[in-house]
Specification:
The structure holds 2 protein chains of 2 kinds. In chain A, a hairpin with a 5-residue loop joins strand 6 and strand 7. The model of chain A has no long low-confidence stretch (mean pLDDT 95). Chain A is α/β, with parallel strands linked by helices. Chain A is built from 8 helices and 7 strands. Chain B has 16 helices and 19 strands. Chain B has a 5-stranded parallel sheet with strand order 5-4-3-6-7. Chain B has a 5-stranded parallel sheet with strand order 17-16-15-18-19, covered by helices on one side. In chain B, strands 11-10-9-12 form a 4-stranded parallel sheet. In chain B, helix 6 runs parallel beside helix 8, helix 12 crosses helix 14 and helix 12 packs parallel to helix 15. The chains are: A alpha/beta, B alpha/beta. At the A-B interface, helix 4, helix 6, helix 7 and helix 8 of A face helix 2, helix 3, helix 5 and helix 11 of B. The structure holds iron/sulfur cluster (SF4). The site of iron/sulfur cluster (SF4) has 14 residues of chain B, from helix 4.
Chain lengths: 190, 471
């Protein structure tokens, strides 16, 4: 799995999932079509036109699939609508020095690369929007245009699932016997 | 003798179906799965598309709370939903629960309410359990010594189908709260103070165990307020060891063991504490005696200070943006800022003791001219108890609105919201930009502070209102 794109930068720290997709849009019962609502209250002006102050609206940020975000991205609500909206908006990877736990898990389960990098690398990427990156999940490395590489950690099972397309629910179901045995042993059977 | 373990480790170890390895996370058994209308529809669809059953309906409990109106049904029986989608979402949960055999505390239930309020009330929440919900404030249930955390919708589907989750073991953080809280300072002030100290990412990757004299002295409802906001410090979960306070609160509730089984359960629950000599990955000490009535001044819960302390200067452009959004001024205290709306409610502060706290301030007083105050009980049971004590009359006499249970202005997706620019003093848990309506400015506070601010029309110290006890 490889993602190649220029970066766009969202420098704000603590971008919470309410900002990624405001709660009033959570009355949906599907996971489709949330991209147009992604960052809704930040991205559009009250008249519905694009807000020029929203960094991803800048011409040079259009079409970027990799976002470098300020520290603690994805904090707040556990809504999986946030990664659904980001993916539908065209974002395939978020790079950050710190990513909120629940968001990170939700993102990886949906194939959105939520990648934690060191503070120094994060600072550099925040300061250099538009740099061309190539993210290689198998190698756990980000290639820079000058040939430099940023190594990153990925939880091994999440990486395996991304690379092999493992269905996590299917994986859990393969343990049905162990689950039933656990219930029997600890008096938790129905 | 086995090695000393923390409370977290004891609960974790007792729920491992398959241990974690370098390649795979642990398979963790889930005792109780709480479900609501917002984060479940796609998970039920997943079950359907795979032709799966919900494995343990008896360990699944559903309620309606997020998108539900808090005004009663009209004369025609129609409930005033904010949108057709909200109504459809609720109808879909009703249909899903029927189809999959889930116990739904719906409109006709005497127990309906906010998911994190009714779990404990029903005694479904018990010490030593693993509890999950597609909602980050599931950490609330940690007040009972249960390992409780929020999950995404994909995981909701995993639990529905297998009663298990794939989980890496989190780290542990002990927060020792020494000393005693001063008079007129409560659990909400304490947790805002703690988050202000450790930061909104201070608990990331960790499960917090709150301990120490000030924690032991808290009532169950106060403990829930503290654990509720663990997620606002970035933690997966918050825990408090169960004790006599816990057992007394739970005894006799519908879903707890009864008779001899109760005694057995309590005997087991008494073993659920951190052994002497057990190690945490990190430890923090907080002095309770230093906590004052605390409020937020920015756009995340870590931007919290004593209401009479000057707002700190912004350290960067992002903080400056937060101050600008809030109209907070560096060097000025929050106390005295003009208030437009006051909200008492949410899974943080909508239980009976919270309403009593607000009523104590409001009794015999009026909500200031131009201020709108909403009081939304956390559950039907809270509503009944509050009305039996006449609290609703106190609120109404003061000019506040007394509503039907639900999340209401905590998440503002049911039509209860503030207008752009309005300042809301709110007993909920998130002051993010736009959380209570586009452009709304949220100040998080305790129920007492919220009530005092409603009376004063500006952010006010509740201690000034608690000394005079009007009849
Ligand atoms: S009251 Fe607020 S925080 Fe609690 S469950 Fe409802 S929306 Fe979530």
């Amino acid at each position: 799995m490889r993602i190649h794109s220029r970066t766009a930068v969202l420098p704000d720290e603590n971008i919470d999932t309410d900002r990624i997709i405001p709660a009033r849009f959570l009355t949906t019962t599907t996971r489709e079509g949330l991209g147009k609502l992604c960052f809704n209250d930040w991205r559009y002006l009250p008249d519905g036109s694009d807000n020029p102050a929203f960094p991803l609206n800048r011409p040079e940020a259009r079409g970027c699939a990799i976002v470098v975000a300020g520290r603690n991205f994805g904090c707040g609500s556990s809504r999986e609508h946030a990664p659904w909206a980001l993916l539908d908006y065209g974002i395939k990877a978020v790079l950050c020095s710190e990513i909120a736990d629940i968001f990170r898990g939700n993102a990886l389960k949906n194939g959105l690369l939520a990648i934690v990098i060191s503070e120094a690398e994060h600072r550099w990427l925040l300061g250099h929007p538009g740099v061309e990156l190539s993210i290689d999940v198998r190698e756990q490395a980000i290639e820079l245009p000058d040939g430099g590489r940023i190594r990153f950690e990925l939880e091994p099972f999440a990486r395996h699932c991304l690379l092999e397309g493992v269905d996590q629910l299917g994986f859990l179901q393969q343990h049905a016997d162990a689950i039933a045995a656990f219930e029997a042993r600890f008096g938790k059977a129905a | 003798m086995s090695a000393p373990r923390t409370l977290f480790e004891k609960i974790w170890d007792a729920h491992v179906v398959a241990p974690e390895t370098a390649d795979t996370p642990a398979i963790l058994y889930i005792d109780l799965h709480l479900v609501h209308e917002v984060t479940s529809p796609q998970a039920f669809d997943e079950l359907r598309s795979r032709g799966l059953k919900l494995r343990r309906p008896d360990r699944t409990l559903a309620t309606l709370d997020h998108s539900t109106p808090t005004l009663p049904a009209g004369a025609d029986g129609e409930r005033p939903y904010a949108t057709a989608e909200a109504k459809a979402q609720v109808a879909q949960l009703e249909a899903n629960c029927r189809e999959f055999g889930v116990d739904l505390h719906g409109w006709d239930s005497a127990d309906r309410g906010i998911v994190h309020v009714i779990g404990p009330e029903l005694g479904a929440t018990q010490p030593g359990m693993t509890i999950v919900c597609g909602d980050s404030h599931t950490s609330t249930h940690g007040a009972f010594g249960a390992l409780a955390f929020g999950i995404g919708t994909t995981e909701v589907g995993h639990v529905m189908a297998t009663q298990c989750l794939l989980q890496r073991k989190p780290k542990t953080l002990a927060i020792h709260v020494d000393g005693a809280l001063p008079r007129g300072v409560g659990a909400k002030d304490l947790i805002l103070h703690i988050i202000g100290q450790i930061g909104v990412n201070g608990g990331t990757g960790h499960v917090i165990e709150y301990r120490g004299a000030a924690i032991e002295a808290l009532s169950m409802e106060q403990r829930m307020t503290v654990c509720n906001m663990s997620i606002e410090a970035g933690a997966r979960a918050g825990l408090i060891a169960p004790d006599e306070t816990t057992f007394a609160w739970l005894k006799g509730r519908p879903r707890v063991p009864q008779g001899a089984a109760w005694d057995q359960a309590v005997a087991h629950w008494r073993t659920l504490n951190t052994d002497d000599g057990a190690r945490y990955d990190r430890e923090v000490r907080i002095d309770a005696s230093q906590v004052k009535p605390t409020v937020t001044y920015g756009t995340h819960p870590g931007m919290a200070i004593a209401m009479d302390a000057p707002v700190p200067a912004a350290r960067n452009a992002v903080e400056q943006r937060a101050l600008d959004y809030m109209h907070s001024r560096a060097g000025q205290p929050m106390q005295g800022s003009k208030v437009d709306v006051v909200f008492v409610g949410s899974c943080t502060n909508s239980r009976l003791s919270d309403l009593r706290e607000a009523a104590r301030v409001l009794r015999g007083r009026r909500v200031a001219e131009g201020v709108r105050m909403l009081v939304v009980p956390g559950s039907e049971a809270v509503r009944r108890d509050a009305e039996a004590e006449g609290l609703h009359e106190v609120f109404r006499a003061a000019g506040a609105e007394w509503r039907v249970p639900g999340c209401s202005m905590c998440i503002a997706m049911n039509g209860d919201l503030a207008q752009p620019g309005q300042l809301v003093v709110s007993t909920s848990n998130r002051n993010f930009e736009g959380r209570q309506g586009k452009g709304a400015r949220t100040v998080l506070a305790s129920p007492a502070t919220a009530a005092a601010s409603a009376v004063a029309g500006a952010i006010a110290d509740p201690r000034e209102y608690l000394t005079e006890v009007a009849a």
